[in-house]
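User: Second chain of the day. Same drill as before.
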Amino acid sequence: MTPRFPLVAALGLALVAGGVRPPDALAAGKVVVYNADTAEFGEAFAQAFNKHNPDVRVEIISAGVGQLFTRVKAEAARPQGDIILAASHESFLQMADLFQPYTSRFDADFANNLKDAQRRFYGFSMPLQVLIVNTSLVPAADAPKAWKDLGDPKWKGKIIMANPALSGSAYAQLAQMIQLHGWPLIQQIVKNATITSSSKLAYQGVGTGEFVIGLTGEENVFKLKGEGRPVEAIHPAEGTGLRFDAVGIIKGGPNPDNAKLFLDFITSREAHGIAAGKPFFRRSVRKDVAPPPGLKPTAEIAFFDYDVQKAAREKAGYLKKFDDIMAAK
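Assistant: Same format as last time:
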């Protein structure tokens, strides 16, 4: 664990509209953030938080959702972290009792369906799951258009996806395909696909041309296009789940007061604007934060009635069955 040291910032710094007010008293100590995205993502919010709380040291620990929640569960008797940032809604639902209820200063800015009824977590961004296709390897007319197309034997060896036991986004992909088409499609996709331990590799491998098709969040496709990669996002014809990732305070964490400060900050318009901007390009759940320019308008995307509660409830069983299918491959 490598701690971040605070940035020097003036407490009298003017705040942007919708931002976070200066603390009533000088906050000090540290806050430990378990970050389910890249280290650069966590660092961006640490720096912005430190502009308002310069004497709070922010420690960022970045890993996959599965790894982070396994860690939180293992540490439950003596938590070492304070916050989980940008982890899947399904994972929060499955382990909601590990999180501390706290009502954010910006609670009124979140619709009821985008926050836990007990305020154990708040929605953050909308990682819509899509197919990523390398257009230099397959013409757009021939590319898969739907989840069900991934089971076609012609794509054998050409698909990459992350292991759903290690990645929150990959589990969401699995749960959505099961709800739409059942296990026969999953069995065929496993035959066709390379299963990687990293959700990052599931889109980078398509960007570099190692694979034709991947499964990922749409913002990752947008990033690769910005780098000049020949990729496109395909929103599946049957629909994708209208879902969100979330942030919450770990119950019994070592720095509860600073955790509340960080939760207030991360639910602010300012923080959501950072997530929506370059280089992260996430759709915010807040209505007062514009979506990243260049992403397909939400009104043009097909959605289906994704049952996130069922996905959370069935997670252990789904993962075991998926593991059995991989073992029999």
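The chain has two domains: 29-126+244-276, 129-241+296-327.

User: Great, on to the next one.
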